[in-house]
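Model it.
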Amino acid sequence: MSTSPQQRLRDWIAAPVYPWITGGAVTVGAVVELIAVPGGVTTTVGVLVSAASLMWRRSFPPVAMLTVAAGLIAFAGDVNLYVSIMVSGLTGCYSLGRNRVLHPALAVAGGALGAVCVNLVHINTWSRMDLPVPALWEKGSLSLFAESFLLTVVVFGAVMMGDAVRSREETRTERSLAQAKLIAMERQQAAEAERAAIARELHDIVSHSVSMIAVQAESATYTTPGLTPEARDGFQQIAGTARSSMAELRRLLGVLRTPPGDTGPAALTAPQPTLDHLAELVEQHRAVGGPAELRITGERVALPAAWELSAYRIAQEALTNARKHAPGARTVVEVDYGAGRLLTLRVRDDGPGTGPGSDPGSGPDSVAGTGHGLTGMRERAALVGGRLTAGAGPDGGFLVEAELPWGSG
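Modeled.
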């Protein structure tokens, strides 16, 4: 995916080589300026130190204080203001605020003090050059300090700009961390909700099996002729244990039977769906979500209830995602009762899918990268020892594939 020019510029500025390139360029410019307009020893050294020190402003931010100080000294040594001094001085002040080497108030106060000192040196220079310089107490003497005021304003603006950029990046980092924490929390809540739904369904399955054991053990004492008293007691103990287990199941998991807000009788009496209901599920999708097709290969095998339910719920969630993120796309549901007791379920569509190199959590079914539906489907596949993959299909679109082994061959 192509990046915008602004993003490419930000990436280049963030590169480790950036301060070395820019610092070196300013140093070369300073050398050219000094050749064109030679200065004294103090000015020459100050200009070169101020420019060259920019190359270390990121690896060692306090060097920015040397950059600004050398620039002020160079400017004080000559009434000529070199362009390289302006560039290095502004960059140094920006770096002081950007890296918070000093508190912004201290940085501005230090810059203002340096500006006044430079101005005083210039006033002394002007007087020695026989220029009309009024005494400090005479009328119009305040105009002599216009240079100090201007330099202070420039220092203030550069330091505040650097501090503003630092504050904005800190805010952006904090927002990203908070968003990541929120996404992690939402994923955890989605996984917990899915586990609760699985627990409710398992509760129904196990309760049915245990109740059957209790009924059969109880009835065996009356339907089996010739039972000894010990055998009859054994059947009664089995029935009693089954009833106790049922009571314990109701006590521990009964609260999970009904989802919050769903208290209707249908929630308590509806049977758990199986793979035999896939045709009805695909028909429902076809009625509201676009063209859909069900393909079944291999011989239909009656799988354990947990496997049937997990496969059905995965197909249901995948079809829901297709309706939500690829409305109108053609969807195909494939069920393969393969050899080796491996059930393979594929749900694919020809919608936009995910682009090459996309993050797995950014495809259909994800909101801001959360992927709650995918989390639930993976939970259901892992429940029965299977695995689930989701992403761009080989022919485009989006593909959800689950492999659910239900026994050894």
